[in-house]
């Protein structure tokens, strides 16, 4: 974890809910459950993107639950692993929006290093069991992360794809999600919040055409920040 994140979140790790979460994860291991991502990558998002460098936040749900897929970055998979359907759809939107070429890999580390915090709502999952680690404390932790970011004076772009991500952030901002669906700006904040359907097979028609990537860069440039190079080798 980057030094500034470690300092900011130090008190959070000492709270009872995090201690209970640690006990839960230990019980999973003792029950011979396989957990993704590997232990060393659970906080990878906070290692790749320091707090001071965050320009964009992409909120995912939980890590991929297939073998070798999860690497602690939302929507991202390691080099050599096939791109999941949702990630392919993200790339398809980028091709039309900002003119990238279809990447050969699904590893989004280059985004993270440019200031894109790839944050999942829960940071671990049991193998082959989606949302299996919901309700054990991770949501409280990531709510706190979003709350900390929301209070930063330096403006940030939040990309919210799907109802789960939208409800999570609007809860932190204490806003009613229904009142702000599909809006570019959230009243009462200097941040840019962009919403769209989740890029999964079931809802991608509501994701295509959102132009979140060009809108993000327009906002960053307007505020004197370097735009994100969305192209992945």
Structure report:
- The chain has a four-stranded parallel beta sheet, with helices on both faces. A two-stranded antiparallel ribbon has the order 1-4.
- 36% of the residues lie in helices and 10% in strands.
- The protein has 233 residues and is of the alpha/beta class.
- It is globular.
- The protein starts with a helix and ends in an 11-residue tail after the last helix.
How are the secondary structure elements laid out?
Layout: H1 3-13, H2 16-30, E1 35-36, H3 44-48, E2 56-60, H4 85-98, H5 109-113, E3 116-120, E4 125-126, H6 138-150, E5 157-161, H7 163-172, E6 192-196, H8 212-222
Spell out the key features of this protein:
233 residues, 4-stranded parallel sheet, 8 helices, two-stranded antiparallel ribbon, 36% helix, single chain, alpha/beta, 6 strands, 10% strand
Summary, kept brief:
This protein has eight helices and six strands.
Helicity range of the residues? Answer: 25-40%
The assigned structural class equals: alpha/beta
Number of alpha- plus pi-helical segments:
8
Radius of gyration: 17 Å
Strand content: 5-15%
For the report, how would you describe the main beta sheet? 4 strands, parallel
What would the average pLDDT be, to the nearest integer? Answer: 93
Number of strands: 6
Uncertain stretches? 177-185
- Our measurement of the CA-to-CA distance between the termini, rounded to an integer number of angstroms, reads 25 Å
Bulk shape: globular
Strand order of the largest sheet: 3-2-5-6
Q: Order of SSEs, N→C?
A: HHEHEHHEEHEHEH
């Amino acid at each position: 974890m980057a030094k500034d994140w470690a300092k900011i979140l130090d008190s959070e790790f000492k709270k009872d809910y995090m201690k209970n979460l640690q006990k839960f994860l230990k019980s999973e291991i003792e029950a011979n459950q396989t957990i993704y991502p590997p232990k060393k990558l659970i906080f990878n998002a906070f290692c790749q993107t320091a707090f001071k460098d965050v320009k964009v936040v992409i909120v995912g749900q939980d890590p991929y639950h297939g073998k070798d897929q999860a690497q602690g970055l939302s929507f991202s998979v390691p080099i050599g692993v096939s791109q999941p359907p949702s990630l392919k759809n993200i790339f398809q939107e980028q091709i039309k929006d900002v003119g990238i070429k279809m990447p050969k890999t699904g590893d989004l580390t280059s985004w993270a290093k440019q200031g894109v915090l790839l944050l999942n709502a829960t940071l671990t999952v049991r193998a082959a069991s989606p949302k299996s680690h919901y309700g054990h404390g991770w949501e409280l932790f990531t709510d706190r992360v979003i709350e900390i970011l929301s209070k930063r004076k330096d403006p940030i772009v939040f990309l919210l794809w799907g109802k789960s991500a939208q409800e999570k952030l609007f809860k932190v901002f204490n806003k009613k999600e229904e009142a702000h669906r599909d809006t570019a700006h959230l009243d009462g904040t200097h941040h840019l919040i962009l919403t769209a359907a989740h890029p999964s097979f079931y809802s991608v028609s509501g994701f295509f055409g959102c132009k979140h990537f060009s809108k993000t860069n327009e906002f960053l440039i307007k505020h004197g920040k370097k735009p994100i190079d969305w192209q992945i080798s």
